[in-house]
Design brief:
Helices cover 33% and strands 26% of the residues. It contains twelve helices and 14 strands. The chain has a five-stranded antiparallel sheet. Strands 11-12-13-14 form a four-stranded antiparallel sheet. The longest helix has 22 residues. It is globular, with a radius of gyration of 19 Å. 44% of the residues are buried. Bound molecules: flavin-adenine dinucleotide.
Length: 287
């Protein structure tokens, strides 16, 4: 189908984009990679009066290490993240997650900011962002707002980003033990989206799990932290019995389990438990 008519703007700076959002925000859609927005426009699921193409804003493309913080521009593509040597060195989980998204064409266009804002419950990034304790930075005419990943995913296809806001940057604390992390998923066979995906980040000290964070996607209407598993692992040695007992709770913090043509709710819960166990064991073996 052909989209409704819309006015098109292509700002070249964040300030310019913010001004346009202030003027048109309620009836305006930001276009980044377009992999989700363009089909929505064509199907007329979205019919905004204004489309704001942020592809020419260079500031939104940056990937840099700033002291103990990794800063990724919202418009960095999955490919740019997967291929960044700096990210491979300081936080390999980012590249590992990016490389599992869709196929090469999807990774060449899809962006981190677009994926997070779209908040697809089967997207891969939310699990990694939760496990990495990331923060999402948004700008509007009122200034800057920093949202913790744990507060960012509100509901199915709903993030905390408001109509007059633009996501500018994703901040990831540099992990203490960069290799002690993993993202594992069961992909849908056609698209690659996660039936269930689990990201785990560990901090191990003298054989004990000093800290752990686990993000789960695909199971529930929104990605979530598996706090019950984390609580059962923190302060313990990661032996088989402890990991099995802890990861048996991987679905305990899910608000609900999704059911669709790809998997039943019960099967998704089962996958979450199996993949949480594999993720913790793999991250521990890499530490
Ligand atoms: C065939 C196919 C396979 C895919 N497979 C996977 C997969 O395996 N795993 C996975 O996780 N994803 C997958 N995706 C999703 C894809 O990788 C993108 O992440 C996703 O489409 C959104 O990113 P985008 O840059 O295309 O955003 P767009 O489509 O441009 O935008 C998406 C939404 O976010 C808003 N938005 C975008 N950028 C900003 C911003 N900076 N500030 C505020 N709002 C913003 C837009 O207004 C829109 O509402 C797949 C997509 C396709 C088409």
């Amino acid at each position: 189908m052909i989209p409704n008519n819309f006015e098109y703007f292509a700002p070249t700076s964040i300030d310019e984009a913010v001004k346009l959002l202030e003027k048109h925000g309620d009836d305006c859609k930001i276009l980044s990679g377009g992999h989700s927005l363009i089909p929505a426009l064509k199907l007329r699921l979205a019919a905004p009066a204004v489309v704001l193409d942020i592809g020419r804003i260079k500031e939104l493309k940056q990937i840099k290490i700033d002291g103990n913080t990794i800063r990724i521009g919202a418009n960095a593509t999955h490919s740019e993240i997967a291929n960044s040597a700096e990210l491979k060195q300081h936080c390999p989980l980012l590249g590992e997650t990016a490389a599992q998204i869709g196929d090469q064409q999807v990774r060449n266009r899809g962006t981190l900011g677009g994926s997070l804002t779209h908040a697809d419950p089967a997207a891969d990034w939310p699990a990694a962002m939760l496990a990495l304790n990331a923060e999402i930075v948004v700008r509007s005419g009122k200034g800057e707002r920093v949202i913790k990943a744990a507060d960012f995913f509100v509901d199915i296809m709903t993030s905390a980003v408001q109509p007059h806001e633009i996501v500018t940057e994703i901040r990831v604390p540099k992990p203490a033990q960069p290799n002690a992390a993993v993202y594992l998923k069961v992909p849908q066979s056609a698209s690659g989206y996660a039936v269930v995906g689990v990201a785990a980040q560990l901090k191990i000290n003298n054989g004990q799990c000093e800290d752990v964070s686990i993000g789960v996607t695909g199971l529930a209407p929104k990605a979530f932290r598996a706090k019950s598993v984390e609580d059962a692992l923190r302060g313990k040695a990661l032996d088989e019995g402890t990991v099995s007992a802890a990861t048996a709770k991987a679905d305990a913090d899910a608000s609900d389990a999704m059911e669709d043509i790809h998997a039943s709710g019960d099967y998704r819960r089962h996958l979450a438990r199996v993949y949480a166990k594999r993720a913790v064991q793999t991250a521990a073996s890499r530490a």
